[in-house]
Design goal:
Radius of gyration: 18 Å
Strand content: 15-25%
Number of helices: 9
Oligomer: single chain
Helix content: 10-25%
Number of strands: 10
Structural class: alpha/beta
Amino acid sequence: MANPKQAFIPLLSLVLFSLYIFSSQAAGIAIYWGQNSNEGTLAETCNTDNYQFVNIAFLSTFGNGQTPILNLAGHCNPAANTCQGLSSDIKACQGKGIKVLLSIGGITGNYSLSSTQDATQSNSRPFGDAVLDGVDFDIEKGSGQFWDDLARSLSGHSQERKVYLAAAPQCPFPDDHLDGAIKTGLFDYVWVQFYNNPSCHYAGNPNNLFNFWNQWTSTQAKQVFLGLPAAEEAAPGFIPADVLISQILPTIKSSPKYGGVMLWSKQYENGYSSAIKGSV
């Protein structure tokens, strides 16, 4: 099994964690940002005042001896070191009380943690002197091995300052890739992807969604979020704002683990968060 202190090295070297510590109890909206250069800047995203969490997506290449590579879809060029320009935006978001996390993985990345040899030291600081609040595990390929080791390693640094851990499993329960990691009980936020999965996403009737929601709130996650497409074109499983407010939120908010709503993603966001934030 991978040595926990080794398994996280290439990720930890890319992410230094924030000294800003805010309450994690109030419900809120999380958004993914970074996968379309036309979605606006990170600072503009935070200035909407609609989000409590922003996941910078993605660190899409790591493991198997590879140099970790960010893919921010035209927002900046990691190879040319231009992502350091995001430093001021990250700090501005955090100054507004918004937690900014680095999302690792994604559906198209080239990543895995299959052995201790996967971990290689890197001194890269792609975001300049900005420090992030934690790491989001959006693991959608490969095996489920070693992500629990990574979670333990990252969480161990909370002795110095709080390292927030998030995960974005698919709604079928349990998740093929993140089940072992979530069972560690170390994840502050689990934003379950209730989309792209007909067996559990909304399709005119909320019963299946509620059944799977209840399973997810029975896990060791500290808070569970309802992950949704931000628009109909974003992914199958979109829930119109009025339906979400009248039919879905009143039921799922009864769970003591309810944390809010996660949206995929900023590039599709066109007023949805504004319409729901008063009810989240």
